[in-house]
Fold this protein.
Amino acid sequence: MEAQDSHKIVLKINGNLHAVETDSNWTLNDVLRNRLDLTGTKRACDYGGCGSCTVLMDGVDVYSCSILAVEAQGKQITTIEGLGNSENLHPLQKSFALSYAAQCGWCTPGMILSAKALLDRNPDPTEAEVRMALSGVLCRCTGYTSIVQAVLDAGRVMREKR
Amino acid sequence: MSTEFLTVGQSVPPVYGIEKTTGVLRFPADINLPNMLWMKILRSPHAHAKIVAVDATQAEKMPGVAAVITHKDVPRVLFGPYQNEIYPLDEEIRFVGDTVAAVAAKDWNIAEEAIRAIRVSYEVLPAVHDPEFGVQPEAPGAVLHYPESHELKPGDIRPDQLGTFGNVIGLKEGGPTVVNQRGDVEQGFAESDVVIERVFRQSEVNAVSHEPRACVAVYENDTCTLWCSVQDPYRLQDSTARVLGLSMEAVRVVSTNLGGAFGVKVTGRFALLCALLARRTGRPVKIWFTREEESLDSHNRSALTHYVKAGAKKDGALTAIAVRTFLDNGYWPFGGLGQNIAFAICTRPIDLYHRCPNVKWEVFAVRTNRPSTGPYRGRADAESHFPIESVMDELACKIQMDPIEFRLKNRLQQGDDLCSAPTKIMSTVWLEEAARAGAEKIGWERRSTLAASSNGARKKGIGVALVIHSCGSNPAGISEAEVTIDITGAISLFSGTADQGSEQQTTLRQMVAEVLGVLLDEVGGCNADTSTCPFDSGPFSSRTVYATGIAASRAAEEVKKQLLELAANSLGEVIGALDIGKKSVWVRANPAKRIDLGQLARLAGGSISGKGIHNAKEDRLFAYGFAATFAEVEVDVETGEVRILRLVSSHDVGRAINPMIVEGQILGGAAQGLGYALSEGFYFDQRTGTALNQWFLDLRTPSILDIPDIEPVMVELGEPTHPFGAKGCSEISYVGVAPAVANAIYHATGARVTELPMTPDVILRALYDGQRNRM
C-alpha cells in the first residue's frame, strides 16, 4: 500500500487553535474524534445521510464526515463541546436535556448544532421552519415532537435574553 | 393518578440528559486509548460457502499491521447471545457479510487495506434464500456443519440431522417449529357466518440504531476489559471468559450507554475477535462498525409470510383462527432466537382474542442464508399483529359491527388462562379502558361521516388496532439490584441494565428515591458495568421498569429496613415510632431527635447495602401491557401516497413513574412504527443473497418531515404486581401502528393492504386488486 500523504494543518475549533497532523483522506470528523478527542461529534452513516456528525463551520451547519480535514483550515469550527458545558449550558442544551428531547443522545449534538445555526439566522422560527431546518439530521428514538418543542423553547429563552 | 408520591409520578429531568446534550457522555465508540489499534473484519462475498484455504501472509507483512486472525487461530469454543451455538470464526460461511477474518492495525485505513490483502479460496455451496423454499425436502441445507461439541438437550436437532429435513428449526421432521392449537378449526369455520382468508407478506426490517456497534478491548495481566455496545453485558462477559479461557471475574464488560439498541445489540463475533486481537497484540484494540456492517451483522426483524383464515358469527363471536407462518430465521443454526420468536408469534395474539374457541397456528422458523434475525422492538408482536389486526378489522366490517366492539367482545380478561405462558394472566388488563380513551381522543364517532370530507382522489379514513405485549415475561429473565449508603450519606443504585435511550436509570432511581423518601438527584449510582453492578438479563422485552424496577424497589426496601433498625437502636425507640426521609431518620413525635444516613452507615461499619432480585420463574411475576393505536389517514388513490393526518397511541401503562419519559417512549415507538408501516424494508437479491439497501438513507427511516405530532394517551389504573404499579410501554407503542394504518387505508378506500412496508406501489396494487375483485 502507498503511504498516505500526511499534512500538518492548523484548525480553529471552539475558539482555540490546534496544530494537527492528518492524512489526506481524513475527514474533519476523523480529526475531531481521533486527533483531538472531541468525541461529542458522532457519525451514524459515513456519507452525509444521517446528520449525527453535524458541526458549525463559519456558523453554517455542515456534515463533518463529508469535509476533508484539510478543507477546514481557516474556518471557525464549533462542536457540541464548544457550545456550552454543564456549568454554562447553552439554552438549546438545557431545553433538550430537561425535556427528554435527547433519548439515546447519538443524534443530539448534530440536532442541537443544526438548531443553533437556525436560531442564529432566524431567532423566531415557526414550527415548519424548525422542521425544515432540522431535516438533515435524523433521529431514531424521539419521534421528533420533543425536539421541535425543545428548539422552539430555546428560541424563546434566547430572545428573552437579548 | 393521585400525587401521593414525592418523586414517582413526576416528570423529573433524565439523569443522563446534560451529559448527552453537552457531548461529554462516552459511548464505546468514543473511547480512545494510547497505543490503540484499529480492527477491521473481512466479510464473505458468498451466501453459503466453505473456506478451503486462507493466506494472510501478504496482509501480515504490511507496515502498520499488528495481527491477523482467521478461523484457524481462534479457540473452538461455542458462544452466542441466546444459546452457545457458533464459534468466534468458522470455516462454514452462512450469509453475504459473514465474518471470515479480522485484522488489527495502526489505523483503520491500514486495517482496511490489510483485509483486502487476505487471500481466501471458497468452495461455494448451494444457498437458501426463501423460507418457503427452504422447508421443501429438496432444499439444500442452509447450515451444514455443526459443532460436534454442542451440548445437546433432549429434543435438540443432532448435528447429523441439520439440513436433512428442509431447514425448519424444530423437533419433528417435516413439522412446524411451533404449533398453538385448541378446539377444532374446521368445526369453527363450519359454524362461521363469515370467513376471511388472506396472505400477508412482511419485509425484513433493520433496527437502524444510530450508533454503529463498537468495542474497545484491553487485555493485560490475564484480565480483559471490554467497552462494548451490547444490551447483554453479562452474556458477553460469559462468552468472552469461555473463549479466552478466563474466569468470569477476569472479564469486565461495560455498556453503560448505547446509542439506540432496540433489542438487536447483543453479544457477537466482533466483540470476541476484538478481545482475541487485544490478547494477541498486547495492545488496546477498537472496532467501530460502518453503517453497512451495522446493517448486515445485526439481528433484523424476520421477513414473514402468513396464510391467515379467520371466521366469526354475525353476533361478533370469533369462531376460528387458522394461521400458517413462514419466518426467515437467517443463518443462526439452532435458532435460539427463531424458536423463541415463533412461540410468541403464535400465542400472544391468541391470548389477546382469548374468547376464540378454535385455533391452529403453525409457525415454521426456517434457516436461510441471510443475516441473523432476532428480537427487534415489539419482537414477535409486531410480526403477528399486522395480519391478525387486519383480519379482525375485515371480519368486523363484514358483519357490520364496530371494529372496537368486535375486538372487545373477544378479548382477554384478567384471570384467563394464557397460552403464551403456563399460567393465568395475573396482571391487570386495562385494554378496554385504553381503547375507549383513544377512541375519544381521535373522535372515533367521526368515522361514519369521514368519507364525506374526502376530496376527489384523496380519501380519508380512520383505523384502529388493539395490541398486547409483554413486560418482563421472559421466563429466563433475572434482575438484581443493589442499593448502598456510604458514610457521607450518599445513596447509590447499582443495576446491570444498559441505558439504550429509555433513561431506565432515571426511572429506577425514582423508585429508590421514593422508598427512601429522598429526591431523584440524591440517588447516584452506576449501571451496566459487570465489575460493580449485579446481574441483569438486560433491557429486553420492555422488562426494565417492571422487572428491574421490582428488584430496585426491593433493594431499597431492604436498605430502609436496615436503616430503621439501626436508627431504632441508636435513638432508643421502636421502629414504628420512626420516619425516614430527607436523608435521615427521625422520631415522628419529636422530629428534632434524628440521625442522618451517613451516621447510620458509620454505625453499620462503613456502609449499608441491600439487594433485591426479580426472578421471573421463581417469582412468577410478570405483566402484559395493552394498547390501542388509532390512525387517521388520507390516501391518494391515483398515486398510492398516504398522509398520516393523526396518530393516537393509547396505552395501559399501569402507572407512569416518569410521565415525560413514558410519553417520550410512546412517541418514539409510534414514529418508528410509522417507518415500519410505510417505508422501511431491508431487501436482498433473491439469487445471490446480497443486501440491496444496507446504507443509511436507503433503509428509509422517517425524517422530521415525515412524522406528524403523535398524540399519546396514558391510562393509569395501576398494576398490583409492581410496587409502584408500572408496566413497560417502549415496544408496544411500535406494535399497533402498521395494522392501524392498514385499517385506516381499508376504511378510506376499501382496499386491503397485505404487505409491509405499505409503499405507494403496494397500495396501488391493493387498490387495483380491490377493484378487480368487485368487478
Notes: Residues 154-164 of chain B have pLDDT under 50 and may be disordered. Chain B is about 30% helix and 25% strand.
